[in-house]
Amino acid sequence: MMRGENMISTEGELKVSFGYQCNSYNSNSCEISNKHEIVSGMNLKKTSSFSCLSGAALSANATLANTNICNGVIGGEILPSLDSPNSFHRIPSSPSLSRLDMLSSSLQSSMSNLSCSPSSPSDPLEYDSYLLKSMSAPSRSEGFLNSMEVQMAGGAAGEDRVQAVCSEEHGLLFCAIYDGFNGRDAADFLAGTLYENIMCYSNLLDWESKSDTVGVSDGSDLDASPHYILEGSRIIHDGKSPSRNDNSFSIKDWCPKLEISSGSFRHAVLDSLQRALNQAENDFLYMVEQEMEERPDLVSVGSCVLVVLLHGNNLYTLNLGDSRAVLATYDEGNALRGNGRLKAVQLTESHTVENEDERTRVISEHPDDTKTIVAGKVKGKLKVTRALGVGYLKKEKLNDALMGILRVRNLISPPYISTEPSLNVHRISKSDHFVIVGSDGLFDFFTNEEAVKLVHSYILRNPSGDPAKFLLEQLVERAAECAGFSMEELMNVPAGRRRKYHDDVTVIVVILGSNQRTTKASTCV
C-alpha cells in the first residue's frame, strides 16, 4: 500500500531543498511547497537528454561535520562555497585560487597531484592528439565544465553527501553520492575535490570533437552504437577485449590514429573519470598520513563512490562499493511511452562480499591469507570490497596507527580493499524513461524492480511531484513496520539510535527525455 505525499515533511525535518528543470521543458516558473526556489535553465539551445531531477536524503547516523581535515580548509572554506541548501548556484568560471590549490597550500606540501598535472610518471596520460586540446596541464578556466552556465547544488545527511551539477548549455548533468562510513571525512573530502579532479582531466578532452556526443536523438541511431564497459582494467567492446590488460591503457592502445570514433571518445571519458578517482584516493591517503598522529581514527574512515555523468545521449557511471544506478526502460519493441512493461536495469556493480564474483576475487588475490573473509566481512571489518579511503586495510603503516581491538591482526598482504572502479557507458534511447541513483540504504528495503515501480506509479499520478522524496517516504513506512513503530514514532527516534532501523539514504531521480515530471530535490536530516 502506498501512502500520500508529505509524510515526512513536518516542520523542521526538511533542512535542504534544491532542484533543476531544463528550460526547454519549463513553461511556467516553479515554486515548491516549502517556498524554496526551483532554478530553471537559461534561454539556451536544448542539448541534454534529461528534463529534470529530484533528489532526497534521509539521515540515520549522528555525525558531526568534521571540519578539521586538511587544516580545516575542506569544512571551513571549500564545502561552504560548494554546498547550496536551497537552490543551484553558479560556479565561478575562473576562481582566483582553485580549491585544489587551496588544499595544497593548507598542507604546505604537494598533496600527490593536487595541482592537477596530467599524470604521474608511472601512469602516463597518452590520449590521441585528436581528442586532446593540449598535453599540458589543463586550464581551469576553459572547457565546458567551467562554462558560465554550470550550476551546482549539494548537501549532507548523516555520513552521506550528495552533489548535482548542471549545464544545459553543454547538455551536462553530473550527480554524485558519497556514502561515507566510520565518519564523514572521506565523503567530505570527495565532495570538496572529486568534481574538480574530474573537471581537470575532462577538460583535456575535446568535447566538441564528436557531434553525436551532444544533442537529443530520437533513438533511431542508437541500436547500432557500440557499448563499452570498463571493469577494472578489462575493456570490453561489443564483447571483445583488447590485448592490453594493465591500468595505464591509452586511447592509442584502443584505436589507431586514423580510426578515432565517438566510441573511443566515450572510452576516454571513462578513463578520465577513473584517473580523477585514483587521484582523489592518493590525495586522501596522503592527507591521512599527514594528520593521523593527531587523528588516528582517519585511517578507518572511507566512502563508497557513485558518479553519474550525463552528456548528450551518453550516460556514464563510475562506482566503488554498493550504491547503485538503476535505469527504468521499456522492453525492446515497446518504446512508445505508456506501452509495454517498464523494467529495471542495474547499470552498476555491487562491490560487497555478498557478490560471489567479488568474494572470489578478494580471496584469490590473497592466497596466503586464510582469514581474508571473516564473519562475512573483509578481514572481519568491512562488507564492501571496494571503497575510497579505509587506509588501515590498504597499508601496514596506517593499520599500525590503530590501537587494541581496532587494529587488524595479521594484515598479511594488503591492500584488501580495492579502489578499482566499475565503469560503464549507456547510450540513452527513446525507450529509457528515468534513472534512480541511490545509496545502499535504499536497497536495504527495496529491490531494483520495486523502486522502479514505485517511482513510475508516482509520477503517473503526480507529474509535478517529487518521486525521490516519495521513495523515501515509502522506505520510512517500511522501516517503521519492520520495527513495529508508526512512521511518526520512527522519525522521532534521535539520529544515531535510528541507525538501528535504517541507514543514511540518498536518492536522486533523473527524468530522461522530454518527460516533465518533477521539480525539486531535497535533503532531509
Automatic annotation (TrEMBL):
<dbReference type="InterPro" id="IPR036457">
    <property type="entry name" value="PPM-type-like_dom_sf"/>
</dbReference>
<dbReference type="InterPro" id="IPR015655">
    <property type="entry name" value="PP2C"/>
</dbReference>
<protein>
    <recommendedName>
        <fullName>PPM-type phosphatase domain-containing protein</fullName>
    </recommendedName>
</protein>
<feature type="domain" description="PPM-type phosphatase">
    <location>
        <begin position="144"/>
        <end position="512"/>
    </location>
</feature>
<dbReference type="GO" id="GO:0004722">
    <property type="term" value="F:protein serine/threonine phosphatase activity"/>
</dbReference>
<dbReference type="Pfam" id="PF00481">
    <property type="entry name" value="PP2C"/>
</dbReference>
<dbReference type="InterPro" id="IPR001932">
    <property type="entry name" value="PPM-type_phosphatase-like_dom"/>
</dbReference>
